[in-house]
TrEMBL record:
One of its GO terms (cellular component) is cell outer membrane. It is found in: Cell outer membrane. The keyword Signal applies. Residues 338-565 form the RagB/SusD domain. InterPro entries: SusD-like_N (IPR033985), SusD_RagB_dom (IPR012944), TPR-like_helical_dom_sf (IPR011990). This is Putative outer membrane starch-binding protein.
Length: 566
């Protein structure tokens, strides 16, 4: 287009055209995927909606295939290396850290831009779209805009609210207060909850998901405004889901699907490969990121799909048998690299309350590993046995009980394996660390936990205990009383139920608990005198910093940095 305009101007200057009217310079979009050509009917708008789902799925891996910043450096996991990366040293969390920039750009350059593009003209009566389809399209765009702003509010605090498409350069953005952002989120979700379909294809956003997220946002508003009426609104929103008024979703209490024919329990069935979605009989999961093998668009990128195994799985393939034969990446375990190394809080502490909790059963957490390399005929298929040496390190032992020379690295190679992450390898390649198992993002179990939190915050501990017990009863865990209900107990129950699924960083930030929980549960360095998240986190780390490039580019107005950052 630039060459074409230059050519016309040259002709005008040389007097080689009969006229040089402004109409010659009007840009006419020729690409069928330009908004003017694409967004004219239901198919075009649905293609734009699909781009929102594609963007939402990128949240999972956009920071890196090594760093899962929504959990690492929290109370649940530490960076699985002995260096200072992965928020193992919070003094490195600054306004130029790549992760702070990547998530900001994901939100403002992808998700919000795409949502606003859809919302900009969806109400035009001249569009060739049926009213039901129009409502559902608008509801999905509103949901994702709300989801993204809730993400921003629970990572950066207050951010600029951009309600419309920006079609020309703008350099005078001003941050809205966090409470204003949350109010905007609630408005979008309230509108979305009236527009979204209740029954949707796998992977699409149903009405129940909007009420689920709205329940969380109302809690945040209640805390921000110190107004208990928002907790009542949160309870009402969650009840829409739990009562099935918003759709046919429920807490699964009986075994189901093909997995039910194998050893396991109802909790393992919920996460069994091939039965994450409602079409497989799973009525608990309201929304899941979708991944598909050997399908265009089935992966986030050509090399990244569901990388939970890579993040959370230990490097068990680096373990050697007493004869010095290394393990192999296997079909069931994939290839982890041990970067989200669970803290002792996740590995042991949360299970002390009730060791019989099925969420801690062998079907859901693997604590015994086996030598799996057939080249070692003596140890192939045998469990890996261990013992603490005189130096305090963990060694493998031989069949006769004698200690070997092989030290087990409990930071990255040998620790409990959370089996939610197991799934079919991407491209059937065990070495990829990726799977194509769909990833649960919203479940009814969490809806109960949100309602329990809302009841707790308004002072009704009896009702909070009842909702917590609904989740605990399914797990065959000991039931609690109203006296047991505290904010810490709710956080612990969220860990027992939602570990791996939950973006723990955002939960802790929205509750105002990031700093003290990291100090309590993630302060032990992985090497003597080494860094740890808990020993380096400061009070101002309660929010992430605004990327410096954003502040520098905003030349038309002052863009405030979060307190404590430079």
């Amino acid at each position: 287009m630039k060459r074409y305009i230059t050519f016309l101007l040259t002709l005008c200057a040389l007097g080689l055209t009969t006229a040089c009217e402004e109409s010659y310079l009007d840009e006419v979009p020729l690409d069928r995927f330009s908004p003017e050509n694409l967004l004219t009917n239901e198919a075009g708008y649905d293609a734009a909606v699909v781009s929102l789902y594609e963007g939402a799925r990128q949240e999972h891996s956009i920071a890196s295939n090594n760093f899962e910043y929504m959990t690492v450096g929290t109370d649940q996991s530490q960076w699985g290396r002995n260096d200072s990366r992965g928020n193992k040293d919070y003094s490195l969390l600054n306004s130029n850290l790549e992760a702070t920039i990547i998530y900001w750009d994901w939100a403002f350059k992808q998700m919000i831009v795409r949502a606003n593009l859809i919302l900009d003209n969806i109400d035009d009566p001249g569009l060739k779209i049926g009213e039901a389809a129009r409502a559902n399209i608008k509801g999905q765009a509103l949901f994702f805009r709300a989801y993204t702003y809730n993400f921003l509010a629970n990572v950066y605090g207050g951010v600029p609210i951009v309600k419309e498409r920006i079609v020309e350069p703008k350099f005078d953005f001003v941050r809205n207060a966090r409470v204003e952002v949350l109010e905007f989120v609630a408005q979008d979700l309230e509108a979305a909850s009236a527009l979204l379909d209740m029954e949707v294809p796998d992977g699409r956003i149903p009405r129940a998901a909007a009420f689920h997220l709205l329940s969380e946002v109302y809690i945040s508003l209640g805390m921000e405004k110190k107004d208990d009426s928002y907790f009542d609104k949160s309870i009402a929103a969650a009840t829409k889901v739990i009562s099935k008024e918003a759709g046919d979703y429920q807490l699964m209490t009986q075994r189901f699907g093909k997995a039910s024919a194998r050893p396991g329990d109802v909790f393992s069935d919920i996460f069994a490969d091939g039965q994450i979605n409602k079409s497989s009989g799973n009525k608990e999961v309201m929304w899941a990121w979708q991944f598909e093998n050997f399908t265009p668009g089935g992966y986030s990128t050509a090399t990244l799909a569901n990388i939970s195994i890579r993040y959370w799985g230990p490097e068990y393939d680096k373990i050697q048998s007493p004869n010095g034969t290394a393990n192999l990446p296997s079909d069931s375990l994939g290839r982890g690299i041990g970067v989200n190394s669970p803290t002792n809080y996740i590995k042991y502490d949360i299970w002390k309350l009730d060791p019989k909790d099925i969420r801690n059963s062998v079907h859901n957490i693997r604590r015994t590993y086996y030598y799996n390399n057939a080249a070692d005929k003596e140890y192939f298929g045998r469990p890996i046995l261990t013992r603490r040496g005189a130096d305090g390190q963990l060694y493998t032992i031989k069949s006769d009980g004698t200690q070997t020379k092989f030290v087990l690295d409990t930071l990255r190679q040998y620790y409990p394996y959370i089996r939610k992450i197991e799934g079919t390898p991407m491209g059937n390649n065990n070495l990829s660390g990726n799977s194509v198992k769909d990833f649960s993002r919203m479940r009814v179990a969490e809806t109960y936990l949100l309602r329990a939190e809302a009841y707790f915050r308004k002072g009704d501990k009896a009702m909070a205990a009842a909702d917590l017990n609904a989740v605990r009863a399914r797990a065959k865990a000991r039931l609690i009383t109203a006296a047991d209900v505290t904010e810490d107990f709710i956080l612990d129950e969220r860990s027992r139920e939602l570990v791996v699924e939950e973006p723990r960083l955002r939960t802790l930030i929205r509750m105002g608990r990031l700093v003290d929980r990291v100090r309590k549960y993630n302060s032990v360095p992985s090497v003597p005198n080494g860094p740890s998240s808990g020993s380096t986190i400061q009070d101002f780390n309660r929010y992430w910093p605004i990327p410096q490039k954003v502040i520098d580019a905003n030349t038309g107005a002052k863009f405030e940095q979060n307190a404590g950052y430079r």
